[in-house]
């Protein structure tokens, strides 16, 4: 057991692959009760330790069985992401973990009450933060069961500025893919299969399907990047 905890310490602190291997795997960590040991460290007031713990949980979450244990930390990590320093290493580590936890549909329902806050971080964060939040939102948007929650989120109108032609391609393409995924959930043969009356006027639904967004899509048809043009054609 001493060797286990020594290897676990190396795993958390980011030791070399050779140090952390030698029969030591994500499955072994779970089976020997190591995940709660790592999980408890996300409460540590030391930002460096907290970041390392989040990164370790992120690595562990690649194993689907581990996600069934890690899911108990989703609420806390979400709260920490929203209350912590914007664009910080700790926030990014938390976002990466949450993104991994949304790769499959299994635990996505646990994010329903946080969707509006994720859009807030998207709008206020820097480029790297925007990309990471969009990765998470894209995972959610691929699940039709999450469409109503996403489209019903209260989102600031400045969201539409991310559809401007000058926006960085890695952000703009993800923004367009988000629109495309949601479009696939709510429209069929050009008609809405989800009634607009269920959405509040300040919701994402009315931003995406309003006149201003339509104008931005028309402008993007003339974008210099072929990938952007193709996405817009699919959406419109």
Automatic annotation (TrEMBL):
<dbReference type="InterPro" id="IPR006911">
    <property type="entry name" value="ARM-rpt_dom"/>
</dbReference>
<keyword id="KW-0496">Mitochondrion</keyword>
<dbReference type="GO" id="GO:1902254">
    <property type="term" value="P:negative regulation of intrinsic apoptotic signaling pathway by p53 class mediator"/>
</dbReference>
<dbReference type="InterPro" id="IPR000225">
    <property type="entry name" value="Armadillo"/>
</dbReference>
<dbReference type="Pfam" id="PF04826">
    <property type="entry name" value="Arm_2"/>
</dbReference>
<keyword id="KW-0472">Membrane</keyword>
<feature type="domain" description="Armadillo repeat-containing">
    <location>
        <begin position="17"/>
        <end position="208"/>
    </location>
</feature>
<keyword id="KW-1133">Transmembrane helix</keyword>
<protein>
    <submittedName>
        <fullName>Armadillo repeat-containing protein 10</fullName>
    </submittedName>
</protein>
<feature type="repeat" description="ARM">
    <location>
        <begin position="33"/>
        <end position="70"/>
    </location>
</feature>
<comment type="similarity">
    <text>Belongs to the eutherian X-chromosome-specific Armcx family.</text>
</comment>
<keyword id="KW-1000">Mitochondrion outer membrane</keyword>
<dbReference type="GO" id="GO:0005741">
    <property type="term" value="C:mitochondrial outer membrane"/>
</dbReference>
<dbReference type="InterPro" id="IPR016024">
    <property type="entry name" value="ARM-type_fold"/>
</dbReference>
<keyword id="KW-0735">Signal-anchor</keyword>
<dbReference type="InterPro" id="IPR051303">
    <property type="entry name" value="Armcx_regulator"/>
</dbReference>
<dbReference type="InterPro" id="IPR011989">
    <property type="entry name" value="ARM-like"/>
</dbReference>
<keyword id="KW-0812">Transmembrane</keyword>
């Amino acid at each position: 057991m001493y060797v286990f905890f020594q290897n676990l310490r190396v795993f958390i602190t980011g030791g070399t692959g050779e140090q952390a291997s030698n029969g030591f795997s994500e499955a072994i960590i779970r089976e020997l009760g190591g995940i709660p040991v790592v999980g408890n460290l996300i409460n540590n007031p030391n930002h460096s330790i907290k970041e390392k713990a989040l990164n370790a949980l992120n690595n562990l979450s690649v194993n689907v069985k581990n996600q069934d244990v890690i899911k108990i930390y989703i609420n806390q990590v979400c709260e920490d992401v929203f209350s912590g320093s914007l664009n910080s290493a700790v926030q990014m580590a938390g976002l990466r973990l949450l993104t991994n936890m949304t790769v499959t549909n299994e635990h996505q329902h646990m994010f329903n009450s946080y969707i509006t806050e994720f859009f807030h971080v998207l709008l206020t964060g820097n480029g790297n933060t925007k990309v990471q939040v969009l990765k998470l939102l894209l995972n959610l948007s691929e699940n039709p069961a999450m469409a109503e929650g996403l489209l019903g989120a209260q989102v600031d109108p400045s969201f539409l500025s991310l559809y401007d032609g000058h926006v960085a391609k890695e952000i703009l393409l993800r923004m367009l893919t988000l629109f495309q995924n949601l479009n696939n959930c709510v429209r069929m043969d050009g008609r809405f299969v989800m009634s607009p009356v269920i959405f509040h006027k300040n919701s994402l639904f009315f931003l995406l399907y309003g006149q201003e967004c339509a104008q931005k899509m028309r402008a993007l048809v003339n974008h210099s990047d072929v990938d952007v043009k193709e996405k817009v054609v699919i959406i419109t």
